[in-house]
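User: I'll paste a sequence; please echo it back and then give the predicted structure.

Assistant: Echoing your sequence first, then the prediction.
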Amino acid sequence: MNKKIKLLTVALLATVSIAFAQKAKSTWTEMKTFHSYMSSTFHPVEEGDFAPLKAKADSLLIAANLWQASAIPGDFKPVETKAALSKLVAKCQVIQKAVASKKPNEKLKMLITEAHDIFHTIAGECRKAED
């Protein structure tokens, strides 16, 4: 009898663990990679340091393209996410060209801020509501 209770307890715990894991937010590797580039370029710009953005504009665009090409996890709204990722890639292309053509820092700040806002739209508004 004691053995049956232990087996039932283990089975119940396994079922609860699986259900919890399925409810947990997905880990979107490409999103995390893009975020690392975004944070390492945007936040210095807020402090007046444009060197990281100028050095990493190409990488920011590459990360955006890789993110766009990746599969959208189930806890994101597919249509909205796809549209926002398209906007993000387009904005990163503009940033990369602006850096390459040595646009003024004020213009770069405006562009990276717009890309940052798009990122937060994807990370927040494009997620499906939790049940």
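The first helix runs from residue 2 to 23. Confidence is low (pLDDT under 50) at residues 10-24.
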